[in-house]
Amino acid sequence: MPYCRDCGTKMPDDALFCPNCGRPVEEKTSASLSLKEITVRYIIIGLIGGFLSITISSLLNTNLYFIPAFLSSILIIYMYRIRDFKDSLLAAFSIYLFYDGILGGFILGYSFISNVPYEMVWLPKLWEVILYASSPISAFVAAYIGVKITPEKKKAPVVLPPKGGKPQGGVIYSYDQLSSEVKI
Fold first, then answer.
1. pLDDT tens-digit profile of 157-176?
2. Predicted confidence (pLDDT) per residue in 48-88, tens digit
3. In terms of DSSP H, where are the helices of the chain?
4. Single pTM value for the model
5. Are 23 and 7 in contact (CB under 8 A)?
6. d(CA 55, CA 103)
7. Do 76 and 122 reside in the same domain of the chain?
């Protein structure tokens, strides 16, 4: 028979809640998220992080290269409490991808709406090319930093039943149980 992780009361095998304190029984699920759920999760993370990156970039009104996506990746990994490096790397890459896609959509959309052909008005310098090329490396760094600063999820303390005695409290499951414990 399992014991409640909160109060230590012995519970029936099929219990959904602790009969003493009412805490839900934690089920160990070996099944992971489906491919659809994972895809939707990272699309949402990418969209939120991409728009956050655009906001950071537009507020500062200067070309910061990968810095807005870097900062928003760390922030989103922290907010979503992603502790696995593989998941944080996937989140960082989706944020970088959506940031570039949304920014490109805004630039080309503005060019289309204003009916002005898009032209490159500046010739990049070598250090700017290097900064843009280092964007994937900065995604790895953002994922690593995000995992390191994200606090671990708090686990409930394991409370064992008292030694040599019955756990206190409980729920009466039948009249027979009541009559055997209480002399009338």
1. 655 556 665 655 555 555 55
2. 999 999 999 888 877 778 889 999 999 999 999 998 999 99
3. 35-60, 67-79, 85-113, 126-133, 135-149, 175-181
4. 0.64
5. yes
6. 10
7. yes
